[in-house]
Amino acid sequence: MSNRAVLEVIALDEEDAVAAQTGGADRLELVTDMAADGLTPSRTGFAAIRAAVDIPLRVMLRLTDGFAAGGPEGIDALVTRALDLREAGADEFVLGFLTADGEPDLVAVERLIAVLDGCRWTFHRAIDRTADRDGLRKRLADLPGLDTYLTAGAATGVDDGLATLKAEAARAGEPGYEARILVGGGLRLDHLPELRAAGLDAFHIGGAARPQGWAAPVSANAVRTWREALDA
């Protein structure tokens, strides 16, 4: 079995996707509207990216900024979008919702995974805003398809979350800790040696793949720098 670390890159369109794959990305997270920290792309946008690259795509399910699903109407809208994307061929997803008191919104999550019908999915950085990380993990542990947590270890980013990331990596395989940790959120190249030494093997970048900012496309060279650092 390969011990190659996973590199996931945020893509907004097919130009991003092609550059990320060229630079060595293993997987893409597809979003739109980074001003709102990444929302669900359109069916057309997904289809264009799917036609442009052949690496796995994880599609964001999130219609508004923040980590609330938006009540029954919001959940219904999310389900409609998920079904539309499934019909277009999407088979991996990213989602995660919290209640007002910081608990996992199981109503929203369970409604969505019911229509995802066994697709693999990532619970995203809502885990970094929850009132109880361990409790959230254990409440989600038996949900079908959950194979990844995207987390910085802290709401403020990897700098503040290093200790949490390493502690959770050390618990791999325990109940609630079976899913892979995908490190992202303020991640820098200089974090990698410490994280890799702790056994972490999956990494997510957005702004780091765009040296000229979010108004510019992904740079294949920037992604290649990360690929080379992970492979070193």
From TrEMBL:
InterPro entries: CutC-like (IPR005627), CutC-like_dom_sf (IPR036822). SUPFAM superfamilies: CutC-like. Signal peptide: none annotated. Gene3D superfamilies: Copper homeostasis (CutC) domain. It comes from the Bacteria. Pfam families: CutC (PF03932). Belongs to the CutC family. This is Copper homeostasis protein cutC homolog. It comes from Streptomyces flavochromogenes. The lineage of its organism: Bacteria, Bacillati, Actinomycetota, Actinomycetes, Kitasatosporales.
